[in-house]
Write a structure and sequence with these properties.
331 residues, mainly alpha, transmembrane helix, ubiquinone, NADH-ubiquinone oxidoreductase chain 2
């Protein structure tokens, strides 16, 4: 994303609109913040270097405007006090469509495939803050339990046969939305912690893929991809899959503990099962990447000055969980 004055203005509006939505005290101002957020992000998505960005921005506009209409219909029905349960269900459907929770998830892989890594990062993290906050305000456990289970299963199974890393991250995002919705039913602080750690891990992962200009799994097998970077990418993938003792294991462990305390045994089984599938295709990708190596070793070509962010991400993912346990034990 080029940092020209126009895009910086849209980025500022995007940040401000999210703050408007999460700090609003009525549904209409929350809806208004979501609309400003939508109109701010669409110009950021467009890129002259990417032929598919205009198609993705149009798809994103159609999906998000449709979900905004559903949300507005629910707000109108709520204000008219017409069947409050049905009104809240309509509002929740609109918000679930905005974050790409199953069964309203089909737009996520196709849109992420057509945009660059920076926009993928914004779409996976910042764009979900306002809708998730509004969903937490309109909690209905009976209605959210089925979309969360579907998200866990579809996000896990959908990523099995993908060759594009962007589509893989899209299905991983759908799976993580299931974890967030389930944690939202039990504790406000738990889903916030999960989302923050998930955003940190995915930011470091997408930063490295953007830096190396990698979009497909077979690009990880090229001789130009250095061996030391493969090791760092392996650690990030294992952390995102939830392999202990990496950082990504901690929030999943917390949610599983809470779910057992709330006697949600079937949901816990689905969570563990889906997490194992996600970890399987991350390990499969990592194993192939490490085994298929180039003829010329490139360990000595690693430059510390040019890879400070990569080293930092390695230590955060590798030792973040251990550091958090130590800090909690000292408190």
């Amino acid at each position: 994303m080029m940092l020209n004055s126009t895009k910086m203005l849209f980025v500022m509006f995007m940040f401000m609109s999210t703050l408007i939505s999460i700090s609003s005290n009525n549904w209409l101002s929350g809806w208004m913040g979501l609309e400003i957020n939508l109109m701010s992000f669409i110009p950021i998505m467009y890129s002259k270097l990417n032929y598919y960005s205009s198609e993705s921005s149009m798809k994103y506009f159609v999906i998000q405007s449709s979900s905004s209409m559903i949300l507005l219909l629910g707000i109108i029905l709520t204000s008219l006090k017409i069947n409050m349960n049905f009104s809240m269900m309509v509002m929740t459907c609109g918000l679930l469509t905005k974050v790409g929770v199953a069964p309203f998830h089909m737009w996520v892989p196709s849109i992420m495939e057509g945009i660059n890594w920076i926009n993928c990062l914004i779409l996976s993290t910042w764009q979900k803050i306002a809708p998730l906050t509004l969903i937490s305000y309109s909690m209905n456990n009976e209605m959210l339990i089925m979309p969360s289970i579907l998200s866990l299963l579809i996000g896990a199974i959908g990523g099995l046969n993908q060759s594009s890393i962007k589509k893989l991250m899209a299905y991983s995002s759908i799976n993580n939305m299931g974890w967030i919705i389930i944690s939202m039913m039990m504790s406000m602080m738990t889903w916030i912690n999960y989302f923050m750690i998930y955003s940190l891990m995915i930011s470091m992962f997408m930063y490295m893929l953007n830096k190396e200009n990698i979009n497909y799994i077979n690009q990880c097998f090229l001789s130009t991809f250095k061996s030391i970077n493969k090791m760092f990418l392996l650690i990030m993938l294992l952390s995102m899959g939830g392999m202990p003792p990496m950082l990504g294991f901690m929030p999943k462990w917390m949610i599983i503990q809470l779910a057992m305390m709330f006697n949600m045994y079937i949901v816990t089984t689905v969570m563990v099962f889906s997490s194992l599938i996600v970890l399987f295709y991350y390990i499969q990708m990592s194993f192939s990447m490490l085994m298929i190596n180039s003829q010329k070793l490139k360990w000595m070509e690693f430059s510390i000055t040019n890879n400070k962010m990569v080293i930092l991400s390695f230590f955060i993912n590798m030792f973040g969980f251990i550091m958090i346990i130590l800090i909690k034990s000292m408190m």
